[in-house]
Amino acid sequence: MTGPYLLGTTTGTNTLTCTNDGNEATNPVITIEGPIYDWVLTNGANGDILMWDGYQIATGETVEIDIPNKTCVSSVNDDVSTYLSGDTGSFALDPGANPLTIFGSGGVVTLTTTISVCWYVQVLGR
Q1: How far apart, in Å, are the Cα atoms of 58 and each of 30, 35, 40?
Q2: How far is CA 12 from CA 4, 28, 33, in A?
Q3: CB contact set of 91 (below 8 Å; sequence gap of 6+)
Q4: CB 21 within 8 Å of CB 6
Q5: Model pLDDT for residues 70-103, shown as the tens digit of each residue
Q6: Contact present, 34 and 113 (Cβ < 8 Å)
Q7: CA atoms within 13 A on the CB side of 39
Q8: Residue 79, exposed/middle/buried by CB under 10 A (0-12, 13-18, 19+)?
Q9: Is 42 helix (H, G, I), strand (E, B) or coil?
Q10: Which of the two ends of the chain, N or C, has the fewest CB atoms closer than 10 A to its terminal CB?
């Protein structure tokens, strides 16, 4: 039986490691709070990548990328999915440690730029 049992959350700036304590990969919900311009988020554990191009996330604005539900919504401009590319439907956290690296270009990354990653731990029973 597979199901959501626990909710894990990690918040950080620039780099963070998300540890999925389940025994199955899980698709996270990623929230980015600006300011940040074009950026790339890479999962070093499996090579999954998300890319953002052509839209500046302003100070105080948040963008929620909901991989399980395949949505990308801004707190200011609603649907902003046209700016997102890469593994948008399959970005996953593998079981164990997942080092996530975010690289923002354009010099618009400050101490208030944050990324939050939330996920359900998937456990496959035997």
Answers
A1: 17, 5, 17
A2: 23, 15, 11
A3: 27, 28, 30, 43, 48, 49, 50, 67
A4: yes
A5: 999 999 999 999 999 999 999 999 999 999 998 8
A6: yes
A7: 26
A8: exposed
A9: strand
A10: C
User: Is the Cα dihedral 81, 86, 89, 91 positive or negative?
Assistant: negative
Is the previous residue joined to 68 through a cis bond, with omega within 30 degrees of 0? no
Angle at 93 between CA 125 and CA 58, to 5 degrees: 140
Rounded to two decimals, the pTM is 0.86
CB 86 within 8 A of CB 46: no
Per the structure block, which two tokens stand in for 63? 């963008």
Half-sphere exposure of 28 (CA within 13 A, CB side): 29
What Rg do the C-alpha atoms of the chain give, in angstroms?
Answer: 14
